[in-house]
Design a protein that fits this description.
Layout lengths: L5 E9 L5 H11 L3 E13 L2 E7 L2 H15 L3 E4 L5 H12 L6 E3 L16 H9 L5 E2 L3 H8 L7 H12 L5 E11 L2 E10 L2 E8 L9 H14 L4 H19 L29 E4 L4
Parallel strand pairs: 1-2, 1-4, 4-5, 5-6, 6-7
Antiparallel strand pairs: 2-3, 7-8, 8-9, 9-10
Bound molecules: adenosine-5'-diphosphate and ligand LCLJCK34.
Pathway: Cofactor biosynthesis; thiamine diphosphate biosynthesis; 4-amino-2-methyl-5-diphosphomethylpyrimidine from 5-amino-1-(5-phospho-D-ribosyl)imidazole: step 3/3
EC number: 2.7.1.49, 2.7.4.7
InterPro entries: HMP/HMP-P_kinase_dom, PM/HMP-P_kinase-1, Ribokinase-like
């Protein structure tokens, strides 16, 4: 068997296993990518919410990153919860030195359960110091609004405007996730990708489920895994979307925990054998 590509995740631990490092590593594994990790914080978390956060010292996070970079040469890096401006600055310095290839930044600010996962100052350091070095940034509509200092997008056009405006901070591409559009046939989920070659709008029917904890982490780590495997940014986003949709469909009937259960990381291995006609670009700018 061929040696797998390596991806590094720099993110927080979710003790409930739905988001954070746990989601990232299971997603990497499902996609045949060896996962290395640098843990930034230990959250006391389950399906009902985040109950406590214990930051890992900045020096310990950097030591994990350094030893993985030296020994395992990751082909892509995903950054999730950083939590503190001083850690964002430290990771940004490593990125600025050109040492974090195909960097996917998920600007984690607040959990779906409403718990803040980032202290004051993180938004500014992400925007000014880390985003300029990112290959792909993956905010949801709330995170995009926080980075831009505005209100969340209320239409696909506004979502596209936000994706375009975020490009001004210097990343190669931005995908704003989590838009919703009501149509006569139901609700659609919309993600908008903006990059140097144009804008692509992805729209697909919403999957009805209460088990959606960890969708953002799973999406960003899947994109990093596909980039590590050599996909273009457009194809990495399309495939990451496909994987999350497969995971959401699989876990919809599950009962795990008493809150919003995790997406089905354990069953994503069969995703690539399952064509999904509902996951296709809806409209496209210039080809990339
Ligand atoms: N109920 C759903 N049905 C279909 N796709 C979904 C659903 N919930 C999230 N997604 C998809 O999951 C991915 C991650 O998005 P999002 O939910 O915005 O992340 P976050 O957890 O950061 O808020 C996107 O591709 C989004 O369209
Ligand atoms: C440790 C940790 N990191 C990130 C998140 C946010 O995860 P996300 O995938 O955006 O999912 P939701 O929390 O929105 O369901 C987290 N909760 N914990």
């Amino acid at each position: 068997m061929n040696t797998p590509p390596v991806a590094l995740t720099i993110a927080g631990s979710d003790s409930g296993g739905g988001a954070g490092i746990q989601a990232d590593l299971t997603t990497f594994a499902a996609l045949g990518v060896h996962g290395a990790s640098a843990v930034t914080a230990i959250t006391v978390q389950d399906t009902t919410g985040v109950h406590d956060i214990h930051p890992v010292p900045v020096g310990v996070v950097l030591a994990q990153i350094e030893c993985v970079l030296r020994d395992l040469a990751p082909a892509a890096v995903k950054v999730g919860m950083l939590g503190r401006p001083e850690l964002s600055e430290a990771v940004a310095r490593v990125a600025a030195a050109g040492r974090l290839p195909r960097l996917v930044v998920d600007p984690v600010l607040v959990s779906t359960s409403g718990h803040s996962l980032a202290a004051d100052g993180v938004v500014a350091t992400l925007r000014e110091q880390l985003l300029p070095h990112a290959h792909l940034v993956t905010p949801n509509t709330d995170e995009a609004a926080a980075l831009l200092g505005t209100v969340p997008a209320r239409s696909v056009d506004e979502q596209a405007d936000h994706a375009g405006a975020l490009l001004a901070f210097g990343s190669r591409a931005v995908v704003v996730t989590g838009g919703t559009v009501r149509t006569p046939d139901g609700t659609e989920r919309v993600d908008v990708l903006a990059g140097p070659a144009g804008t692509v709008v992805f729209r697909s029917p919403e999957i009805a489920t209460d088990n959606d904890h960890g969708t953002g982490c799973t999406f960003a780590s899947a994109a990093a895994a596909f980039l590590a495997r050599g996909h273009t940014t457009h194809d990495a986003v399309l495939s990451a979307r496909g994987l999350v949709r497969h995971a959401l469909r699989t876990s919809a009937p599950w009962r795990l925990g008493s809150g919003r259960g995790p997406v089905a990381h354990t069953r994503t291995t069969c995703f690539e054998a399952t064509p999904d006609p509902t996951n296709a670009p809806h409209s496209q700018g210039a080809p990339r």
